Amino acid sequence: VTIDGQEILTNTATNGGGIFNQNGVLTATNNILAWNSVSSGGAGVYNTSPLTVTLLHQTFYSNTAAVSGGGIFSNGSLTVAIRSNIFQQNQAATGSAIRIGGGAADLDYNYYFDDLTPVSGAAVGAHSIVSDAIPPGLTDPANGNFLLRDDAPARDGGDPNGPLTRDYENDIRPSDQGPDMGADEVAGCRVRLNENNNLLFGSIQAAMAAASPGDIIDVSGNCAGTHEYDTGFAAGGECRGDNGVIFTNVHIDKNVTLRGGWNNEFTLRQTPSFLDAEGQGRVIYVAPGFSPTIDGFNILRGNVSGADDDGAGICVDNASPIITNNKIYSNTATGNGGGIFSINGNPVIDNGNRIRNNSAANGGGVYLMAAGATTATVQNNFIYENTATNGAGLYNNSGDALIWHNTLVNNAADGTGGAIYVANDSPDIRGNLVVSNTATATGGLYGATSSTSTADYNNLHANSSNYGGTISAGANDLAVDPQFTSEYLISYDSPLVEEGDPDIALDHDYEGDIRPSHQGVDIGADEVGGCYARNTQNPSVVYGSLQQAVDLAGDGDTIQVDGLCLGANTRQNNGGTNVAQNLYISKSLTIEGNSFNFDQDSPLTATLDARALGRVVYVDSGATVTLTEIILTGGDAASAGIGSQGGGVYNDGVLFLDKVTIRQNNADDGGGVYNAANLYLTGSWLWGNTAVNGAALYNNAPGTGFAQITSQNIFTTNVASGNGAAVYQNDGDLFLDGAKIHDNLAQGNGAVYLTGGAADPVDVRNVYFYRNVADRGAGVYNNNTDAAIWHNTFFNNQAIQEEGGGLYSANSLLDIRSNIFDTNVGTGVHAPGAAALDYNNVIANFPADYGGSLSAGTNDISATPLYVDPILDNFRLLDGSPGADAGDPALPTAAPNPVTADYDGDIRPTNGGPDMGADEINSCLIQVENPLTGTPTRFGVLQEAIDYAETFSATGTLPDVQIARGECRGALLRGGTHQVGYVSTDLNFIGSLRRSNFSDPDDYN
User: Fold this and answer.
1) Which are the contacts of 576, defined by CB distance < 8 A and separation ≥ 6?
2) Of 449, 737, 890, 910, whose CB count within 10 A is highest?
3) How far is CA 145 from CA 7, 31, 166, 186, in A?
4) 577: phi > 0 → left, psi -120 to 50 → alpha, else beta; which?
5) What is the pLDDT of residue 602?
6) How many CA atoms lie within 13 Å of 661's alpha carbon, on the beta-carbon side?
7) Which of 324, 41, 58, 354 is nearest to 181 (CA)?
């Protein structure tokens, strides 16, 4: 019979109040037997069987036998095994806990409380505990809670070779350092061996014993206590005691990876895991010759003294572990290395270990001792609030350690070297942040006479003296307040940003952020990250600096960028002038901001922010560059070189800006963009930029230079203290087609300001101008060009001087046709009388529709347009609107730049002729495919489609005329009659097709 995991309570009998075994093979495990009573013997268990009886891990509480064996009475012929049990407050006249009346008994690892003579007829066992002062640690047995407390004396006291793998609650047994006595196992420690199987343990050491080299041991919960371990070095030594036997929470003698931080189900790694030596020895011992990884633990309450007094938290004994992302605290060594002690190994102590509140004689946080062939690496750690006589933060006894980019704060030495003490050799001390450390002599960095340290690019601030002994300030050291945010981190506003050694061979910070990030290396453990870039030629390599990725790229490469890239750098351009910018480009590249999502947790669009330290982008001469779907912001050209021009972008090459947001930049000229060469701007948004002239864009491209601004760009809320709140045209060709220019403010003249004379062609077409404010020409101000102002909509713009609310021209060279001037303040259009003006709809402007000496053109109209929804700024025309089919019929074929589409890209003209304004009512849409090549051509006028189809009559193959859903209207004169379409040969017409792709919906309705 096996009886396991039962609660056997308050029973009465003559013998065997809980269990009576007369003649069976009995195994009783993990049971709780309480408050049972008998008038004779064995209140808990009564055994007279001549067969095998095994009684393991049971809790006997307050059982009463009138004669013998308050807990157990046994009188069998074979050996009865009674091990790993708890006996508390049981009573009997003989053997309050156990009475062996006959047969052999195997008793050990039991806990007896409240009776100094608990066993009659046998010995209690060498490993048993007998106490009348210290109870075993049951939580509240009087009220039925028989679980062990976390600090129970019975923890880890059971038979280490016992066979049980679970307790009465089905928790894993053993847990921590060994099996607990009694029915309950304190389930603080939970361990998984390799993530792809379900092999679970209750102790790290048990998992270690089952592991093979390369295995992963995952840990959840609190793994407490210590165990005895023989290092195999009888002569003792550092970390080995005087005879090689030590006490440690974990000993590592295999090349495995230990990972803490798991929840109980091992599904998420976000819960602290504790390795707690409870003051009974060290926490971790790494045996000689091994290279394990220790990651993500709280390592605490190590306490070593006497012959084994080094390395209370972790002792690295001639080994090469990787120690990362741990919290190492509250460890005490009377010798050296309260937090970490390393001797003759190649440990890598990296990735954000927080080593704090440890104490030792030397090296309260870290102590390094290395033979010539070994090198310790200590980088990207936070070492703070440790105490020692010397080297409270770190003590380098020997070896040329690499001590890079650590943050050491508030360490205190009674003697010398509050932060770092170098006793011997030549460690490399670079990029460290050393703040508020104290010592009797030298709170910062101290080198003894036999040391020759290299120290540079460190920041030492507010220490009780920064340097001492053989260590003095490096040429690039700083002494500034780091402006910590929290937990000794820094923000981009810290003076330590980008002040580290640019040549240091370190590619990450404490949390894995890429180093360098933005424009350079930061000092300390924290690198302000958030910028990610890669070259599609080698996409597995990710840079933290877009500038670095660009510098390493080849001509024609594509760079993908994600996140927020901050700051500015200074370069010399091809003309030998120093220029400051976030990104300098001197080669032909494509830079994409939409195809790389490195930071999955952040939806942030790729953003370049110069933080007012220079302009955002500089494109040098000779480079052909495409920027797409990137935000350019925070540029200020005031001290960026080249005449304080181009706050967002300065272009001296060939630049394609596609779907780019250019916002909140500043310059004298071209707050958003300054173009000095060839610019293509499509589908972009320029807002909130400021400048004297050309707040959003300044075009100054002499010779063959140009600015081609097409495909629905938006210019809004830009402010010019002079002229051209949106666009300032000074030199070069300007082709402005398909834009919304609204809510801009020029304290001088013009949302669009045109100057530079008549030598360069200037076209402004298909633009919606609304709610712009300027002194004159709130929509467009023309100084001296012969620009073509065709098919624009000017609505509700305001000229403060009441001259040209929509458009103002100082000369008579403008060609103003097919526009809508509606409800503008300060006249609709103002120009000398000789200006070419016709086919416009000029209506409801105040105080007059026309200003200057201008009067209505022959084909001008004055009728209220019908907009789709002007309240929501939708100024597209409704069917039947005045001005439909009433624009200048010559413009769709006008050389050299005919107007063949509207703002939306819809075909112009549609139906009877082009519509006035920026919108073409797109009800008629027709497609004819070339029967020889299959190439489709689209039309907005039925007669034009018919004429094109009939040109193929000589080939013998006539194409279909495919008509999409919509309305084709208007009668044209052809063949002496008026009709929508005049057909002179055999053609096939197919109607009611889908407008998107001319497929057949199979439903003419």
Assistant:
1) none
2) 910
3) 11, 13, 19, 13
4) beta
5) 60
6) 16
7) 58
How far apart are alpha carbons 214 and 670 in whole angstroms?
60
The single residue listed with the structure tokens 């689209």 is 938
Distance between CA 83 and CA 356 in Å, rounded? 42
For 594-644, the pLDDT digits (tens) are 877 776 666 668 999 999 999 999 999 999 999 999 999 999 999 999 999
User: Distance (Å, rounded) from C-alpha 832 to C-alpha 384?
Assistant: 77
- Other C-beta atoms within 10 Å of 574: how many? 12
Kindly list the distances between the CA atom of residue 955 and the CA atoms of 153, 163, 928, 951, 960, in Å, as whole numbers in the listed order: 103, 95, 15, 9, 14
For every residue of 440-485, DSSP letters joined together read: EE-SSEEE-TTB--EEES-EEES-SSSEEET----TT-B-------
Helix (H) or strand (E) holding 624: strand 624-628
89 is written with which tokens?
Answer: 């407050």
> Amino acid identity of 270?
Q
Q: Are 582 and 570 in contact (CB under 8 A)?
A: no
Mean pLDDT of 960-987: 92
**Cα angle, residue 594 at apex, residues 591 and 595 outer, rounded to 5°:** 85
Asked whether 677 and 622 are in contact (CB, 8 A), the reply is no
Which segments of 7-95 are extended strands (E)? 7-9, 12-13, 19-21, 26-29, 32-34, 37-38, 45-47, 53-56, 59-61, 64-68, 72-75, 80-83, 86-88, 91-94
Is residue 728 within a helix (H) or strand (E), and if so which, with residue range?
A: strand 727-731
- Which pairs with CB-CB distance under 8 Å and at least 24 residues apart come from 473-476? 476/501
Query: How many Å apart are CA 999 and CA 928, to the nearest integer?
Result: 13
Q: Name the burial class of residue 119, with classes exposed (0-12), middle (13-18) and buried (19+) by CB atoms within 10 angstroms of its CB.
A: buried
* Amino acid letter, 742: H
Query: Is the overall model pTM greater than 0.70, yes or no?
Result: yes
Instruction: Give CA–CA dist 324/305, Å, rounded.
Output: 26
Q: Phi first, then psi: what are they for 464, rounded to 5°?
A: -80, 75
pLDDT, tens digit (0-9, with 9 covering 90-100), for 282-330: 999 999 999 999 999 999 999 999 999 999 999 999 999 999 999 999 9
Q: Six-digit token pair at 55?
A: 């009684």
* HSE toward the beta carbon, residue 974, CA cutoff 13 A: 15
Burial of 236 (0-12, 13-18, 19+ CB in 10 A): middle
Residue positions counted in the chain: 1005
- C-alpha to C-alpha distance for 190 and 204, rounded to whole angstroms: 8
**Residues 721-731: what's their mean pLDDT?**
99
Q: How far is CA 744 from CA 649, 846, 928, in A?
A: 19, 20, 43
* pLDDT tens per residue across span 925-941: 999 999 999 999 999 99
Sheet holding 752-754, edge to edge: 569-572, 578-585, 615-619, 649-651, 673-675, 697-700, 727-731, 752-754, 780-782, 807-809, 829-831, 850-852
Q: Which of 252, 292, 260 is nearest to 191 (CA)?
A: 260
DSSP 875-900: EEEPTT-TTTT-S-TTGGG-SSS---
The reported pLDDT for the residue numbered 166 is 95
Taking alpha carbons only, the member of 407, 585, 433, 573 closest to residue 499 is 433
Closest CA to 116 of 134, 93, 132: 132
Q: Kindly state the tokens that stand for 167.
A: 């307790």
| Residue 601, pLDDT score | 61
Q: Dihedrals φ, ψ of 748, to 5°?
A: -95, -115
Q: Which residues pair with 102 in a beta bridge?
A: 75
Task: Report the alpha-carbon distance of residue 697 to residue 724 in Å, rounded.
Answer: 8
Cis amide prior to 702 (ω within 30 degrees)? no
Residues 6+ apart with CB under 8 A from 424: 396, 397, 398, 448, 450, 451
Residue 748 structure tokens: 């001088």
Look at residues 173, 201, 203, 202 and name the one whose alpha carbon lies nearest to residue 185.
173
900: buried, middle or exposed (CB in 10 Å: 19+, 13-18, 0-12)? Answer: middle
